[in-house]
Design a protein that fits this description.
single chain, alpha+beta, Heat Shock Protein 90, 5-stranded antiparallel sheet, two-stranded antiparallel sheet, 24% strand, globular, SiaB family protein kinase, DUF6272, transmembrane helix, membrane, transferase
């Protein structure tokens, strides 16, 4: 077996042991997210997830991908100019273990964004599911926050759909002030 073939066999074995049903690392754009969303839908159906679980998986996946697209500090540039539409680097993967789905994402963020994300997520972790649903409804009726690139519903959507509190971590800041942001939702 060649070294390349062995690397693929090792990777495939790892994926099977971890029950990885979807994995992507690279640049995210709206077009790429739409293609991945189709793949996630098909994989969720293939794994036998019930309709409500598929909806939760899909909406949480979209929110994670959108967060990477909006907040990753790794912006793809061409000849010193940001590409249009924007493309930002990150990764997502979905695994399944004992009837539960785990959605993971990771992307670099600058120090200021890391602190904003930490505050939002710590607040969400302090709420009950009823309080999360109440905040979600309130956010639907309110104006978009000025520092948000969307409607401000992403983390609330994931927290509402999750069966456990959202887990998150930040790596220690690098020399340039960026940290890796890791997020996991359990469905």
């Amino acid at each position: 077996m060649s070294s390349i073939e062995r690397e693929w066999a090792d990777f495939y074995s790892y994926v099977e042991r971890r029950d990885v049903i979807f994995y992507y690392v690279g640049y995210f754009s709206q077009t790429i997210i739409a293609a991945m969303a189709d793949a996630v839908k098909l994989r969720a159906e293939h794994t036998g997830a019930v309709a409500q679980t598929r909806r939760k998986l899909f909406s949480s996946f979209i929110e994670m991908a959108q967060n990477i697209l909006h907040y990753s500090s790794d912006l793809h540039e061409k000849e010193g100019q940001a590409t249009e539409p924007s493309m930002r680097h990150g990764s997502v993967f979905i695994s399944q273990t004992e009837g539960r789905y785990y959605l993971h994402c990771a992307n670099p963020v600058n120090g200021e964004m890391a602190e904003k994300l930490r505050q939002k997520l710590e607040h969400l972790r302090s709420l009950t599911i009823d309080e999360i649903k109440s905040e979600y409804k309130e956010m639907l009726r309110s104006e978009t926050p000025p520092d948000s690139k969307g409607a401000g519903l992403g983390f609330l959507t994931m927290a509402r759909d999750a069966s456990a509190p959202l887990d998150f971590e930040f790596s220690p800041a690098a020399v340039d002030g960026t940290s890796m942001f890791y997020l996991r939702a359990t469905i």
